[in-house]
Amino acid sequence: MASSRQCYLGIVPHLLNPIHLAYEWFGVVWLEEEHQFPVIIGYWFANEKTEILENVKLSGCSQWVEVSNHYILMNMYQSIRKKQSDEDWNHRSRLSIRTMFTSPWKEASPGLYIIKSRNTYPLHASAVLKKKFFVWLEHTAVCETEEEFRAFMGRVHAEHQDMQEHQDMQEHQDMQEHQDMQEHQDIQSTKTCRARRHAEHEDMQSTKTCRARRHAEHQDIARKRGFLQAKAHLPQDSL
Prior knowledge:
Blueprint lengths: L5 E12 L4 E11 L6 E8 L2 H10 L6 E3 L2 H21 L2 E2 L16 E6 L6 E8 L4 E9 L2 H87 L7
C-alpha cells in the first residue's frame, strides 16, 4: 500500500529576509511521508501573512495542515538559511573586467578586502580579492550582528592564510625541484665536459702517435734512401 503524502504549512512573523535585509513574514511548505524526513517544497518572505497564503495556493498546494510549533518552524528556517550561507561562502566568481577601471578598485592595491554593504545591521559582507589584472568575489555572507561580521572576517583571514601558506610551500617545493634539476644539469654538463676533454686528449694522443709513426716511417725511408745512395757510389770491386 502506498504511503500517504501530507502537505504542511508554517508561517512565522519577523524573520530576516536575507535578500532584502528586512524582517518579514516567513512561510514554508513541506511534505511528510511515513518514516521519512520532511521535504521542503517551497518557502516565501512577504510583508503580509496574506501574501504568503496566496503564494502557497499559486504553488499548487490546495490543502494543507497548518503547523504553529515554533521549534519546528525555526528548524525549517535555519536549515534554509544554512544552505544559503554555504552557497554564499563557496560561490567564487570573477567580477567584470570593467571593475578594474572603476572606483575604488582602480586606486586599490592588490590584496584581500572585507566590504560591508552598509553601516547598519543586518548587512551583506563580501570578501574581495584584487589581483594584478582581475577582481574576484571570494565569499559573501549575511551578518545580523557585529559578532557575526567578526566571525566572517576571522573565517576569511584564516582560510586565506592557509592558502598563502600552501602557496608558499608550493613555491618552496617548486624552487627546490628547480634547484635539484639545475644541480643535475650541472652534474651532467660537468660529465659531458670531462668526456669531451677526455676525447680531445685521446684525439691529441692519437694525433701524436700518428705523427710519431709518420716520422718513424719518414726516417726509415730516409735511411733506406741513404743506404742505396751510399751503395751506388761504392767502387764496383768493393761490392
